[in-house]
Amino acid sequence: MSENVARRGFLVGGLGGAALLAAGCTSNEPAAAPSSAAAAPAPAASGNDQPGTKVTIGFSAPAADHGWIAAIAKNAEATAKQYSDIDFKPVEPTNDINQQISAVESLIAQKVNALVILPNDGQQLNQVALQATEAGIPVINLDRVFPDKLAYRTWIGGDNYGMGVAAGHFIGKQLKDKGVSNPVIVEIQGIATLPLTQDRSKGFADALKTYGFSVTAKQDAKFTVETGNQVATSLLQAHKKIDAMWNHDDDQGVGVLAAIKEAGRDEFVMVGGAGSLNAMKEIQSGTSVLKATVTYSPTMASSAIRLARLVAQGKGMSDLVENSVPQSITLASETITKDNVEKYLELGFES
To answer: Per the record, which residues fall in region Disordered (predicted)?
Structure first.
């Protein structure tokens, strides 16, 4: 694999516009600049941030072999450290389903006060999440959803359908403005079997339909740089002319862009997904096929830790009237273009 395909170091910025604007347990103050250390949002100025009952929060997520996942883990840890009343108990991150189940079972056995779980696969970890709930431990389900609502107290994640809609509208408008008819539109998914990927694809198809367009070809790239490179190479070879490309994930997009540059192709417009720093820099350059990316902010992990703390302490969200934390929180997906990229740069994570 060439150097421009190799994975780079990780960093994470502060809480961006896609984060939880309504919640009193979050802040919108950006970090001063990107750095290799996690720059989790500063605690909001509310009564909820005063030290309360000491709570132990368990945390489990996949292995940090992906920029977005690395940012999730760093944000969770950094946010937990901001509170003197949180005892943070992360378990070894893993991509092995059975190992993650065992790790969560160990946290249940320790009788933690709350669990924050980003499952490798919500379906396969549903049973262990139910075990936690049945043991009286509230589960904050992060991102990849458990199919059984009894398995979690609160879900927080990005708007996957909204990501697809945003990408579809950006591409649809670009092609309409150019007067393109019957365009060749290719889509590079993450992991095709995940509900989040299916939601992204459905949103994309639904938005394109409003312009009279549809996806010509799609293939999944497993959220990895290497597979992104392979899939993009295959699609470029199969389609001698492409009008638009949507790549679901900016991490795998490192490999996608490398394949595009290697092939010397620049006849199409490309949209990314998640909002990585390197994607933003490509957009800012004005010389790349990558013209936009739609956000899916890893700052959701910061909010998940704060929600777990509130639930464990029996508190609600200070900006809401209700006395308890909502059952489901969906973050907004925003479109980053050359026109607004400046305000997002310091919020990006490195792929």
So the answer is: 32-53
Q: How confident is the model at residue 185 (pLDDT cuts 50, 70, 90)?
A: very high
User: Which pTM value belongs to this model?
Assistant: 0.81
310-329 core/surface letters (b: 16 or more CB in 10 A; e: else): bbbbebbbeeeeeeebeeeb
> Which of 102, 93, 109 is closest to 142 using CA atoms?
93
Lowest-pLDDT choice from 16-25, 118-127, 234-243 = 16-25
- The pLDDT of residue 336 is above 50: yes
The gap from C-alpha 162 to its chain's centroid, in whole angstroms, comes to 12
What pLDDT shows up at residue 350? 85
> Helices (DSSP H) in the chain: which residue ranges?
67-81, 97-109, 122-134, 160-177, 195-209, 225-238, 250-263, 277-285, 300-312
pLDDT score for 6: 32
Rg (CA), the chain: 20
How many C-alpha atoms does 14 have within 13 Å on its Cβ side?
Answer: 16
Q: Is 228 helix (H, G, I), strand (E, B) or coil?
A: helix
Query: Is residue 351 a contact partner of residue 274, using CB atoms and an 8 Å limit?
Result: no
Mean pLDDT estimate for the chain: 88
Helices (H) and strands (E) in the chain, counts: 9, 12
Closest CA to 76 of 299, 254, 319: 299
Task: Give the CATH H-level superfamily of domain 160-295.
Answer: Response regulator (3.40.50.2300)
Q: Which residue is associated with the tokens 């949209």?
A: 271
How many other β-carbons are positioned within 10 Å of the β-carbon of residue 84? 9
Residue 275 CB neighbours (<10 A): 28
